[in-house]
Design a protein that fits this description.
By secondary structure, this protein is of the alpha+beta class. It has one domain. It is built from 3 helices and 5 strands; from the N terminus they run E-E-E-H-E-E-H-H. A hairpin with a 5-residue loop joins strand 4 and strand 5. The longest helix has 13 residues.
Length: about 100
Amino acid sequence: MVHISNLKEFKTSDLLNFAPQAKFCYINGVRATEQFWSEEIFEILNRKITFQNLNYRLIKNNLGENLIIIDLYLDKENQISLTNWLIDQQFGLQFNVIEALSRKI
């Protein structure tokens, strides 16, 4: 589990320029706790990903009242590079991707 600073405000207009905000990052996706993820946010993130020709998408998965998992569906050939891109560019974090991919949520 990689800790990510949880920003107080979630401004949709900032998503195209700044990292999405989540409290915890897991290996196969993002576990967003104490955060509101609207349909508009998912649409904007997916549009950004499509524009940059990246082969993954974000899927919202509700597992309880306030628990949301965003699963990353990665192209197998580009799994490591896309995981690196997601973490380095979207969340500004660096960690051992090979080790991370071997873990499970």
